[in-house]
Amino acid sequence: MEKLTFSTNWNGKLWADCFTTIRLYNPNKYKTGAKFEIWLKKDYMHKAVIIDVKKLKMSQLNDWICALDTGYNLAETQNVLKTMYKDNEELKRTGDLTLSYVLLKKLKG
What we know:
By secondary structure, the chain is an alpha+beta fold.
């Protein structure tokens, strides 16, 4: 099972039964039904399955999505993404990123 690692437990979401993550668009990795081990830095948290994925641009994010995912507003979340992906060619070329907005559900047991 593939690992999905988080550097921060944004908004305390990793303790919830369902949570989201905003990642660079990767339809081969982030697809409905894919299962992951969820890690917070070097600590194993639990297993989860992807319930749904929405493809969107960073410019399409809004305060609602950002608050639920990171606990930050739109501008702060965009700054975090720009910092995390500063070497991304699409970001350098267009100032925007294609993202996967991923909804996961914690697996029991």
